[in-house]
Amino acid sequence: MPIAYRRVSIGLALCAALTLAGCHSPAPLTAQQREGQRLYNDRCAHCHELNDLALKKVPPNLHGVFDHTALPSGAPATDLNVERTILSGRGMMPSFAGRFDQEQMAALLAYLHAGIR
Ligand code: HEC
């Protein structure tokens, strides 16, 4: 293929890749999701992002947790199961019973659905 044509097709491929990448840029967070983000950053991220307590069982990565059919434990990835984990704790994860009111819990779940960012 002549060089000039090759340049054009590389250019086209690049454009297509950039356009596709653009499609994946996440939608802006709603007010509810932003509240969930704040709660996640305050209460969850230090373990789930940083493992700052150096837990032997490394807290699982929750990015895209609802994009999978199962939670890391194998339980179905449903709001109910995530809420149960938060309320009851699991292994080294403490219980957050009484720490979030219903609105805050809904905000946290909405943020996890939107994708941690
Ligand atoms: C002290 C550290 C710590 C904090 C704080 C913490 N977690 Fe966890 N979390 C863990 C660990 C460790 C596990 C793995 C538990 C296991 O399977 O033994 C876990 C597991 C999970 C799971 C997976 C449950 C499953 O069934 O696989 C979810 C969902 C989760 N945490 C959500 C949260 C949310 C939301 C918050 C904030 C409200 C939070 N966690 C706060 C340590 C933490």
Architecture blueprint of SSEs:
Elements: H1 3-23, H2 31-48, H3 79-88, H4 102-114
Helix pairs in contact: 2-4
Bound molecules: heme C (HEC).
Explain what the structure shows.
With about 120 residues, this protein is mainly alpha-helical. It has a single domain (about 25-115), classed as Cytochrome Bc1 Complex, Chain D, domain 2, CATH 1.10.760.10. About 55% of the residues lie in helices and about 0% in strands. The protein is built from 4 helices and no strands. Helix 2 crosses helix 4 (about 100-115). The longest helix is centred in the first third of the chain and has 21 residues, at about 5-25. The chain starts with a helix and ends with a helix. The model has no long low-confidence stretch (mean pLDDT about 90). Heme C binds near residues 43, 44, 86 and 94.
Strand fraction: under 5%
Radius of gyration from CA coordinates: 20 Å
Number of strands: 0
CATH superfamily grouping: Cytochrome c-like domain
Helix content: 40-55%
Number of helices, where a helix is a run of at least 4 consecutive DSSP H or I residues: 4
Give descriptors for this structure.
4 helices; Cytochrome Bc1 Complex, Chain D, domain 2; 53% helix; mainly alpha; 117 residues; binds heme C
What is this structure, in a nutshell?
The chain is mainly alpha-helical. 53% of the residues lie in helices and 0% in strands. Helix 2 crosses helix 4 (102-114).
